[in-house]
Specification:
With 209 residues, the protein is of the alpha/beta class. β14 and β15 (194-195) form a beta hairpin. The strands form four sheets. Strands 1, 4, 5, 6, 7, 8, 10 and 12 form an eight-stranded mixed beta sheet that branches. The two termini are 33 Å apart. It has helices at 10-20, 26-44, 85-91, 138-148, 164-173, 201-206; strands at 4-6, 50-57, 60-67, 71-78, 96-97, 99-104, 111-117, 125-130, 133-134, 154-158, 161-162, 178-181, 183-184, 187-188, 194-195.
Amino acid sequence: MQNVFVFDHPLIQHKISLLRDKNTNTKEFRELVSEIAMLMGYEVTRNMPLKEVEIETPVGIAKTKIISGKKLGIVPILRAGLGMVDGMLRLLPMAKVGHIGLYRNPETLQPVEYYCKLPVDADEREMVVLDPMLATGGSASAAIKFIKARGVSSIKLMCLIAAPEGISRINKDHPDVEVYCAAVDERLNDHAYIVPGLGDAGDRLFGTK
């Protein structure tokens, strides 16, 4: 696996454990997803460039640093990716938010884009694609492809739990995209669910199961 970063921070690992628990209710699940996204966002943005500036404090002049270079954008994959947006925005309130929606064609089984709305300056931003579960990687790979087709060249993928199959798919289709996740699980089952995983993230986020 290439360009894969798995977080071992104790807070992230603790909250992922609570997230997996089948007894965690919808409210708690939603809060945990948001909190984990914020903690992961702290690490995903670690390499953002800085520039030195002078700031006048109440007692003098300080030479300090602020973020420079490319601005940031986030793109949740509908619908489960929405659960990660608030956590990222708490950390990065200046980030712009796009949305992308996909469905699988029942005949060809290929992902089809049904909605994509990106910031007008998306090609000037580093875009972080959000999706809690990276299972087969088909949807995430297609979403990245559609975003690239709109001129975006700097993309990262952030998920909570990944399967080896999904990571391999992203590595193969998009070797330039870094993958950030809190856990890499064993495998996919016959229904393409991550094992042991946490079930259907969208259903658990929105109480639709």
